[in-house]
């Protein structure tokens, strides 16, 4: 797996404040997807939609004699299967072409919470308002208002990792 460009290491001062930076690149997006999927955020196949599309497609072909509509619906079901099979690559490519891609994100961790700042967005996650903080093998999933965010351990020093690990147990 390609290494992400390492930014200045995390600093800790007497106020228990950690600061770090990382770049939103393909390696980070891959890690984010893998850790999210491994921790229960995986998308399930849409079997109901597939059965509906194929059934409507067959009905259009054989019942209504509308071959174009039927073939289109069946092809749509095939595209849905392909999209599910390649969901990781598709998600990473979509993120790589977003306006956030390539930006440097500044992460600040204090006793109060986690703050992230990038060119186009700034987020604050107070520990009191978090739904949950889940430690994964390579990072932390931060759930705020039921929306997950991911922070990689690779840009954090041992003190920050220990502090977030302690927070995840609360």
Radius of gyration: 21 Å
Distance between the termini: 33 Å
What strand order characterises the main sheet? 1-2-3-4-5
> Which class best fits the helix and strand makeup?
alpha+beta
Can you give the helix content as a percent range? 40-55%
Average pLDDT works out at: 84
- Give the overall form: elongated
What count of helical segments does DSSP give? Answer: 5
Please report the total strand number as a whole number: 8
Provide an overview of this structure:
This protein is α+β, with helices and mostly antiparallel strands and 170 residues long. The chain has 5 helices and 8 strands, in the order E-E-H-H-H-H-E-E-E-E-E-E-H. The protein has helices at 26-41, 47-63, 67-85, 87-96, 158-169; strands at residues 11-12, 18-23, 104-109, 113-117, 122-126, 130-135, 139-144, 147-152. A hairpin with a 5-residue loop joins strand 1 (11-12) and strand 2. The two termini are 33 Å apart.
């Amino acid at each position: 797996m390609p290494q992400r460009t390492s930014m200045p290491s995390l600093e800790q001062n007497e106020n228990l404040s950690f600061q770090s930076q990382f770049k939103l690149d393909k390696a980070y997006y891959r890690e984010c997807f893998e850790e999210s999927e491994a921790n229960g955020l995986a998308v399930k196949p849409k079997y109901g939609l597939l059965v509906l599309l194929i059934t409507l497609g067959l009905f259009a072909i054989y019942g209504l004699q509308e071959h174009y509509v039927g073939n289109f619906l069946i092809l749509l079901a095939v595209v849905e299967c392909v999209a599910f099979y390649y969901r990781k690559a598709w998600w990473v490519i979509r993120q790589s072409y977003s306006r956030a891609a390539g930006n440097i994100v500044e992460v600040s961790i204090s006793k109060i919470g986690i703050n992230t700042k990038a060119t186009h967005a700034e987020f604050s996650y107070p520990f009191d308002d978090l739904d949950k903080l889940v430690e994964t093998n390579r990072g932390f999933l931060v759930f705020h208002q039921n929306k997950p965010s991911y922070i990689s351990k690779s840009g954090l020093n041992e003190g920050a990792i220990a502090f977030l690990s302690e927070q995840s147990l609360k």
